[in-house]
Amino acid sequence: MSGLVEGKAVLVTGGSLGIGEAAARIFAREGARVALAGRGRERGEAVAASIAADGGEAIYIQADVSHPEQVEAMVARVVSEFGRLDCAFNNAGAGVPSGPLAEIDAAAWDAAIAGYLTSAFLCMKYELRHMAARGGGVILNNASVDGLRGFPQDPAYSAAKHGVIGLTRSAALQYARQGIRINALCPGWIGTPHVVEAFRQRPDALAAALLHQPIGRLGRPEEVAELAVWLCSDKASLMTGAAIPVDGGYTAV
Ligand SMILES: NC(=O)c1ccc[n+]([C@@H]2O[C@H](COP(=O)([O-])OP(=O)(O)OC[C@H]3O[C@@H](n4cnc5c(N)ncnc54)[C@H](O)[C@@H]3O)[C@@H](O)[C@H]2O)c1
Q1: Contacts of 248 (CB under 8 A, 6+ apart)
Q2: Which CATH class is domain 9-245?
């Protein structure tokens, strides 16, 4: 039986942890050749080896996606390894919590924009050059429900994620006639390791967060990743320019 993304060459940024790791594993399960990119070599190589041990195909690429030259080299490496790039899941993101807007210092703001928005822009820039030259491809950006509505705990994060959605929609319009689909995922609270650890230290914060997530629990990384893989597959051929919640009802309220 052939998989949902059989034979496709796929790049997953931030693919060695959390949602990205789950996506790398599910892409491979569904038949893709997977390049997972990240900053931590040891963990990235371990995930790639574990995918291979399960019968999948994966390589690890060392890259910090907030640096243009590393992003360009990352995309070039995927193309040299696999001969092409069919799908990219731009998932990597990191920053520091920002707090009340009047207290955000410029360096923390810059870090959030660089880590969550500029990184998505850089990935898209080099992926699109390749996809446009080949005449097709799929890009999926990992945004957040906080890109669809305000998030009082972290205005810089919310602004960056609104930016990711704006970038996604605009690029989708630019490239729709070139066979390139571009969408954004908007997860609610997902129980990735750093989220679980943060809530373990602050059970009151978990209870407060779940007040906004009607399903009453954290999502699992795999619940986001299954949708990511489907959106990158040919089954989603009519979907472009969409910002899709996967959030246990968070945005339904
Ligand atoms: N976990 C959630 O509740 C949640 C909710 C909504 C959106 N998201 C988004 O989903 C994405 C993944 O989140 P996660 O919770 O799985 O995160 P995570 O911290 O568990 O994993 C992110 C991975 O990306 C890597 N990474 C971060 N910045 C990088 C960079 N500049 N270059 C290369 N690699 C980098 C990290 O090292 C890590 O391996 C992020 O964009 C996040 O904003 C997460």
Answers
A1: 188, 189, 213, 214, 215, 216, 217, 219
A2: alpha beta
